[in-house]
Design goal:
The protein is built from 16 helices and eight strands. The protein is an alpha/beta fold. Strands 2-3-1-4-5-6 form a six-stranded mixed beta sheet, with helices on both faces. The two termini are 53 Å apart. It is a multi-pass membrane protein.
Length: 463
């Protein structure tokens, strides 16, 4: 189920390009009419419902992805209520919580002086916006947790957010830059917010803006680099009076988040519904991909059992067949039956003629890559009539082992072909067969097959 592709083809090119670059209004791009946003929401909602209600998904696959399905249900509820989530990322002490409090107009998020006070994700509704469907999300400081956990948190929160505020207070540190790359890789529009701007003169701000534009090129659009002051402060200054005497005074540094508010409101008004639809569709697309992987893994497990069953059946049939070369023809029929069985398992039914054509292609490549094995196969077939007793048993088991092995290779290659939608892909049959052969330890596999067949034959003779 290619949910992201379905949403993607309904969006205007300018929006797709801007979303991928973390920008939404560069070069005077036109706003999205609300009717388009409603259409995107409807499309995403239908896609999520389709994913949740798909009866073809096995129960064990659903159970293994229970948390992801729970998130999709939450996203569906979010879309139906018209909610938009804005998450904030940043190091400890850059003023993330203060910035959110300034947006809310009240001290809701903790701004404790204790290092790393924010230990978990916290969400509050932004009532100031007219539709009041916007929720602001605070997160732990990215330098408070180790690299693996930090990346996991960034993935999880960004995947559930429609827009990201990445807060810094100066040039990006290495930790910040790596976290920023992780967040923007999730294809969520990202605003780089430089907080505590009151510490810089106008010239210093211009220099810092230039540095950040250069370092974040391709990650954050230039107009999405915004300077703010989230907390009011008092600054001691020295001034000279008209008599040339110096005096100490205090200058108030007020909160200044007007540029950020304006940018957020512009984004929400123009593209809020579309951003919510994209976010949900991206996450659902990820889940859809994971579902496909799990189902394919189950099919491969069942396919492996099926191939092994046919390997034994063919090995025994060849070992017991007393007529030289005729057993090779019977073996081809068994291989064709196995491929048809596998094709049904993968939901790509093929005819017996198609199966025969596939076998001929695989065997031709095997002959080129391992002609000596097939020489043994033919010699063993001819020797059957000239031996007797235990010699016949051993000869038959040897030839049966080769037949067992050839069916294993045919089955693995056919399974690869089916798993790729009945296509060889870029590698072609020769490289596919070669890769399968390289993955098998021929000596150990043939020994295993021979012993398995001998055990069966001894039971048959003794019985």
């Amino acid at each position: 189920m290619e949910i992201w592709k379905n949403v993607q083809k309904h969006l205007p090119d300018w929006l797709l390009n801007n979303i991928k670059l973390g920008r939404t209004a560069e070069e005077e791009v036109p706003p999205v009419p609300s009717s388009n946003g409603d259409a995107h929401l409807q499309l995403a909602t239908e896609s999520l419902r389709q994913l949740l209600d798909d009866s073809r998904i096995p129960d064990d696959v659903r159970d293994s992805l229970r948390d992801d399905y729970t998130q999709v249900r939450g996203m569906l509820d979010k879309l139906e209520h018209g909610h938009l989530h804005i998450a904030v990322f940043g190091r400890v002490s850059v003023g993330k919580s203060s910035l959110l409090n300034a947006l809310l107009g009240k001290p809701v998020f903790s701004v404790s002086v204790l290092h790393g006070e924010t230990r978990s994700v916290n969400m509050q509704q932004w009532q100031e916006y007219s539709d009041s469907g916007i929720f602001l999300i605070d997160t732990p400081g990215i330098n408070e947790i180790d690299g693996e956990s930090r990346e996991k948190m960034a993935h999880e929160v960004a995947s559930r957010s429609d827009l990201v505020l990445f807060v810094v207070e100066s040039d990006l540190t290495d930790v910040e830059f790596q976290a920023l790359k992780t967040v923007t890789a999730m294809l969520r529009p990202t605003l780089l917010v430089v907080n505590k701007a009151d510490r810089y003169t106008e010239d210093e701000q211009r220099q810092l803006r230039g540095i950040l534009r250069s370092r974040t090129q391709g990650l954050v659009a230039p107009e999405n680099i915004i300077f703010t002051t989230a907390q009011a402060s008092r600054q001691t200054v020295i001034y000279v009076d008209e008599n040339g005497e110096e005096h100490e005074g205090v200058r108030e540094r007020p909160i200044n988040i007007s540029a950020l508010k304006t940018r957020l409101w512009d984004l929400v008004e123009a593209e809020g519904k579309t951003l919510a639809a994209l976010n949900a569709s991206l996450f659902a697309g990820h889940l859809s991909k994971e579902v496909g992987k799990r189902i394919l893994a189950i099919k491969r497990e069942l396919g492996e059992k099926t191939i092994r069953l046919y390997c034994l059946g063919k090995g025994i049939a060849v070992a017991l067949n007393p007529i030289p070369v005729a057993d090779l023809l019977a073996a081809a029929v068994i291989d064709a039956g196995m491929i048809i069985h596998l094709s049904r398992l993968y939901g790509l039914p093929i005819s017996r003629n198609e199966a025969s054509d596939l076998i001929r292609t695989i065997l031709a490549q095997m002959l080129l890559l391992m002609g000596s094995v097939w020489a043994v196969h033919l010699v063993s077939s001819a020797l059957k009539l000239g031996t007797g007793g235990i010699s016949t048993l051993l000869t038959g088991a040897t030839q049966g082992a080769v037949a067992w092995y050839s069916t294993l290779v045919v089955g693995r290659v056919a399974e690869e072909w089916l798993a790729n939608g009945k296509s060889w892909g870029d590698s072609g049959p020769k490289l596919t067969v070669e890769r399968i052969l390289d993955s098998l330890d021929r000596d150990s596999v043939l020994t295993e097959a021979r012993e398995e067949i001998l055990v069966y034959l001894r039971k048959t003779i003794n019985g």
